[in-house]
Amino acid sequence: MLRSLQVRNYVLIDSLDIEFPAGLVIITGPTGAGKSILLGALSMLLGGKADSSMLGSAGGNCVVEAEFDSASDSILEDMVEKAGLDWNGGVLTIRRVLSASGRSRAFVNDEPVNMSVLTELSSRLIDIHSQHQTLILKDKAFQLSLLDHYAGNGSLLSSYTLAWKELQSINARLQELGATLRKMALEKDYNEAQFTQLDQARLQEGELEALEAEQKMLANAGQIKEGLYAVSSMLAPEEGASTDSLLKESVRSLERVGRYVPEASALASRLESVRLETEDILSETQTLGDGIDVSAERLSQVEERMSLLYGLLKKHACSTVAELMAVRDSLSELLYDSDALEAEKNKAEARKARLEKELGALALKLHESRTGAASGFAAAIQESLRSLELEHSVFDVAVSKVQQNATGEDAVTFLFSSSGAAPVEVARCASGGELSRIMLSLKAMMARYTAMPSMVFDEIDTGVSGSAADSMGSMICRMGEDMQVFAITHLPQVAAKGHSHFLVSKSLEEGRAVTEISRIEGERRVEEIARMLSGSDITPQAMENARVLLGKAAL
Question: Which of 189, 206, 219, 374 could serve as a FRET partner for 459 with CA atoms 20 to 30 Å apart?
Answer without folding.
Answer: 374
